[in-house]
Specification:
Number of strands: 0
Number of helices: 3
Helix content: 55-70%
Shape: elongated
Length: about 70
C-alpha cells in the first residue's frame, strides 16, 4: 500500500524576505520567518545570488557606504 501524497500547499515567499536576508543575515531571517521556511526561500530565490547580494551589502556597510 502506498502512502498518500501530501495535499498541503506551500505558502508563497514573502515579498520582504530577500531584503531582510540581505540586510540582516541568516540568524535574523531564521527568527523572523522560521528556520525551515528561510532555507526553502533561500533555495527558491537562488542561493548563489542571495549569497552574493549579502556579501556586497556587508562589504559596503563596512566601508560606510549607503546601500539602498
Amino acid at each position: 500500500m502506498r502512502k498518500a501524497l501530501s495535499t498541503k500547499i506551500a505558502e508563497p515567499i514573502p515579498s520582504e524576505f530577500e531584503q531582510v536576508f540581505v540586510a540582516l543575515g541568516w540568524e535574523r531571517a531564521n527568527r523572523i520567518f522560521g528556520k525551515r521556511a528561510t532555507q526553502r526561500y533561500f533555495i527558491a530565490l537562488g542561493a548563489d545570488r542571495l549569497r552574493l547580494n549579502r556579501a556586497q551589502y556587508v562589504k559596503a556597510s563596512k566601508q560606510g557606504a549607503y546601500v539602498a
